Amino acid sequence: MSRIERTAIVTGGGKRVGDAIVRALLADGWTVIAHVHHDGDPVADGAIKAVADLAESDCASKIFAAAKGAPPVSLLVNNAARFAFDGFGSLSTAEFDAQMAVNARAPMLLIDELARGHEAGEALVVNLLDAKLGAPNADFLSYTLSKYALAGLTEVAARALAGRGIRVNAIAPALMLPSGKQDAANFATVHNLNPLARGIEVDDVVAALRFLIDSGGMTGQTLVIDGGQRFMALPRDVQFLENR
Prior knowledge:
The chain is built from 6 helices and 7 strands. By secondary structure, the chain is α/β, with parallel strands linked by helices. The longest helix is centred in the middle third of the chain and has 25 residues, at 93-117.
C-alpha cells in the first residue's frame, strides 16, 4: 500500500484506543478522518473531524463526506463500539438493537460506502473485535453477539471484496483499558490475567494495525491479542474474576 496521498477513517477516533490509532496514523503520514459522536468531542491536532451517530442509517455518508477533497480513502478502521452490561435474566431488546446498530450495522454501512466509492488501487478495512470471542461467556451478552456479527461481516466482506483490491481483516484484543463501570483497582488486578501474565496495551493494537497495513497479501484474518487468555476459558468477564 502506498505511503503517500492516502486517507484513513477511524470511527470512535476521539478517545481511548481510537485516539491512539488516529495519532499513530497521523505520525505515519496519513490524512486521518477521526469520527466522533458529538460536535464538541475533541480530536487530535491534524485530524479532520467527522460527526455522526453510528446508530443512524446515514452515518456512513456523513463520515465519508468529511473526506471530500482529501486523498482517496484507502483505510477504514471500525473501532467505535457500544458497550453496556446485560446477560440472561437482564436482557433488553432495546439494548440489543442499539448494540447491533453501532457495533455491526454501522461497520457494514461504512464498508459498503468504501466499496461503492473505491475505483482503483488497494484499500484495507480493519474491524476491532474482542478476544472474548475465542472463549465466550454470557456477560455483556448483546455486546458479545454484536461482535460475533462483526466477525462474520469481516469474513463475508473479505470474500466479496477481494477481487476489487479491498482487504478486510480484524484485530481482537483482550482488556486494554478500564471498561464500563470497572474501577482502577479492579483493572489493575485483572489486566494481566492471562498465561503470559502480561496486560494487553493500546500500543499492541497499533502495532497490529501497522502490520496489517503492510501485509498486502492478508485478508479475511483476525489477529488475536490476548496473552493466551482464551486458553483459560474464563467462566465470566475478566472484570468479575479479581478474586480468582
